[in-house]
Specification:
Keywords: Membrane, Transmembrane, Transmembrane helix. The structure is a single chain. Helices cover 69% and strands 0% of the residues. By secondary structure, it is mainly alpha-helical. Helix 10 packs antiparallel against helix 12 and helix 15 runs antiparallel to helix 16. The radius of gyration is 26 Å and the shape is globular.
Length: 526
């Protein structure tokens, strides 16, 4: 506990200038904090109807009544007047008087860190492994055999399973949209979105069935045969984006700007996936152990800039999305990138290398979350093209968004550890003959436990810094909104598992010399 407290004080010293300042009088703060104005309403604002209380600070003096000061007007002594600037400073920093002791904060951080990084991550990661196992037995059955040597029954099973799984992928963005906006904002639009997406999905499934029934695909599509499917999926995304743009353009500062806000997170998710699968993985496979470790260390930096760009874009949609739901746009990006980059760590298998990499990644994640305020403030200054006060950036929306982003960052990095390790040992069990199931399970527990403990330790440091020194409501939000975070994670883990399992097993298959391609194809679960 003492180590966590010392490290948190060190990290706090680098961000104090931003973390210690609020400017409630700033125009941007006032705009985001102001009440709903009926005369200016279009009926689509997130606060058009009553909503739950917004949680944006870990410690708030507003929940603790008023501070009453009694003055004796008859006293001959001259009353000391407190300067107005000092009053504003005291009012802005009043939350510091509400903080518990640093030792209690550390204990609480370790407790919540365990809930997020270990318990919840194991549940979501186990679901990912279950979906991957079913995919191994259905869509990817006989995956590394010559496609013409696969029995026709198994070809049809693979084709139909692939078509069914695409339904979850087509609905991925749509379901996230339903969680992002409040019911009154999508009134009359849900059916249109569902119908258009379902029709395009039916064309996708029909195309797969026709190719299989004609004896063209043999349940494994070529790159050229995949082009129509990619076009259909992009049309589906554009259809959904256009309908949302058409609905909410009256609230946005610009039509193009709103479209970018909605499209950027998904676009960057696919961009990271393409770059990692087609460039980083092949380069990784060709290197020796030392260079592999270096690639695994620095590869996650490629997603850091994209996360900052998306975060800055989304923060300005203050009248469109509920502050407590905005993080949903970030979930595919954070979850997907965590899984793709953790693959290279899991493949190392050397406990020493895994420990070193885990410590480096954990420290980097603490640094990223702790300096999020500073980084966003600098980007805010660049976009404004003028100097702004430190506190002008810390508005309620941004405070809540930083809390939610800290939660999903901790949760999905830990979930990725369990998920990727599970797929690795499932791949060895199904495609290799080297070990028994019990031996592989023991190795899975050891590798996952080491990484999860490291992740838990650094997440506890991160929680202590963000709550005790920066007053970011990470623990308060998780305590009151954990069910929604878990539900969003479950909804996103299904399409992510369906999308990422094949690239992961192809990457791992390239690392392993012996596979079961000489074995006959069998029906699932036999």
């Amino acid at each position: 506990m003492r180590i966590i407290e010392i490290l948190s004080h060190i990290m706090y010293s680098f961000t104090r200038s931003v973390a210690d300042h609020y400017s409630p009088e700033d125009s941007e703060f006032t705009a985001e904090s102001s009440d709903y104005v009926p005369l200016q309403s279009t009926g689509l604002e997130w606060n058009h109807q009553p909503v739950d209380e917004l949680i944006y600070q870990e410690y708030s003096h507003s929940d603790n009544g008023f501070t009453i000061r009694v003055l004796d007007a008859c006293s001959p002594e001259k009353n000391e007047e407190i300067p107005e600037d000092q009053q504003d400073e005291d009012r802005a920093m009043a939350w510091k008087r509400l903080r518990p002791s640093s030792l209690r904060t550390v204990r609480k951080s370790m407790y919540f860190g365990a809930l997020i990084s270990i318990l919840t991550a194991m549940v979501i990661g186990s679901l990912y492994c279950l979906i991957s196992y079913v995919s191994f037995q259905t869509m990817f059955n006989c995956q590394f055999h010559q496609k013409k040597s696969i029995p026709v029954k198994i070809q049809w099973m693979r084709t139909l399973s692939d078509a069914a799984s695409c339904g979850f992928i087509y609905m991925w963005f749509l379901v996230n949209i339903f969680f992002l906006f409040l019911p009154h904002q999508l009134q009359g639009l849900r059916r249109k979105l569902i119908f258009g997406t379902f029709m395009l999905y039916c064309l996708d499934a029909l195309y797969r069935v026709i190719l299989q029934s004609s004896g063209i695909s043999h349940s494994r599509l070529t790159k050229i045969q995949m082009i129509p499917l990619i076009v259909l999926f992009l049309v589906s995304l554009c259809w959904q984006g256009y309908q949302l743009w058409n609905r909410f353009q009256v609230l946005s500062r610009g039509r193009i700007f709103f479209f970018v806000q909605i499209a950027a997170p998904g676009f960057f998710t696919f961009l990271i996936g393409i770059v990692t699968v087609y460039f980083t993985y092949p380069m990784y496979n060709e290197e020796n152990e030392n260079r592999k470790l270096l690639i695994a260390i620095f590869a996650p930096l490629s997603g850091l800039l994209l996360k900052v760009i998306v975060r800055i874009c989304i923060q300005s949609s203050w009248n469109i999305t509920h502050p407590g739901y905005t993080y949903i746009l970030f979930v595919p990006l954070y979850f997907g990138s965590a899984i793709l980059f953790r693959v290279m760590q899991a493949e190392l298998e050397n406990i020493s290398a895994i420990t070193i990499l885990g410590i480096i990644h954990g420290a980097a994640e603490v640094l990223e979350r702790s300096t999020m305020v500073v980084i966003d403030h600098i980007c805010h200054v660049v976009l404004k093209r003028r100097a702004v006060s430190w506190g002008s950036f810390r508005t309620p929306r941004r405070e809540r968004l930083m809390a939610d982003i800290a939660i999903i960052s901790m949760l999905y990095e830990s979930t990725a550890i369990v998920s990727v390790n599970g797929v690795l040992y499932l791949h060895k069990f199904i495609y290799l003959k080297e070990n028994s199931l019990s031996t592989l399970f023991q190795r899975f527990l050891v590798a996952s436990s080491v990484q999860l403990v490291i992740e838990w330790f650094f997440n506890s440091i991160s929680l202590a810094i963000e709550t005790y020194h920066q007053n970011i409501a990470v623990m308060a939000v998780w305590q009151r909104k954990w069910k929604r975070h878990v539900l969003v994670a479950v909804i996103n883990v299904i399409p992510l598992a369906l999308c990422s399992t094949l690239p992961i097993i192809q990457f791992m298959h390239g690392q392993l010399a012996k596979s079961r391609t000489d074995q006959p194809c069998k029906m699932p679960f036999s």
